[in-house]
Amino acid sequence: MVTINSTLEDIMQLDFTSREMLLEILQKRQIEAKRDEVAKKAKQSLKIYTSGKLPSLSAGEVIDKLNSL
Predict the structure, then answer these.
(1) How many distinct structural domains can be found in the chain?
(2) CB 48 within 8 A of CB 56
(3) pLDDT for the residue 55
(4) CA dist., res. 65 & res. 57, Å (int)
(5) Do the Cβ atoms of 12 and 19 come closer than 8 Å?
(6) pLDDT at 20
(7) Using CA atoms, how far apart are residues 2 and 18, in angstroms rounded to an integer?
(8) Which residues of 5-35 are buried (b: 16+ CB within 10 A; e: fewer)?
(9) Do residues 45 and 34 lie in contact, with contact meaning Cβ atoms separated by under 8 Å?
(10) Domain of life here (predicted)?
């Protein structure tokens, strides 16, 4: 079984430059995954909006909902 600890031990066996490169790759992949998640949620929201299922709210109601998050 692969664990975080065993993976970290393996990574620490790499030279410094390789570890930095791995860190950069992981950061870029995380950014891309987050972008994909945001795009998916935006598409879902747009689908709800265009279907007319989104209720109308006043600006105050929107602010109250945002503050409650």
Answers:
(1) 1
(2) no
(3) 83
(4) 10
(5) yes
(6) 98
(7) 21
(8) eeeeeeeeeeeeeeeeeeeeeeeeeeeeeee
(9) no
(10) Bacteria
Place of tokens 């007319």: 52
Going 9 to 28 to 34 to 47, the CA torsion angle's sign is negative
Helices (H), the chain: 4-12, 16-50, 59-67
Rounded CA Rg of the chain: 21
Structure tokens at 34: 């987050």
The answer to whether 46 and 40 have CB atoms below 8 angstroms apart is no
Q: Mind listing the pLDDT tens digit of every residue in the chain (69 residues)? A: 899 999 999 999 999 999 999 999 999 999 999 999 999 999 999 999 899 888 888 999 999 999 999
- Separation of alpha carbons 24 and 30, rounded Å: 10
* CA 55, chain centre distance (Å): 27
**Residue 46 token pair:** 């747009």
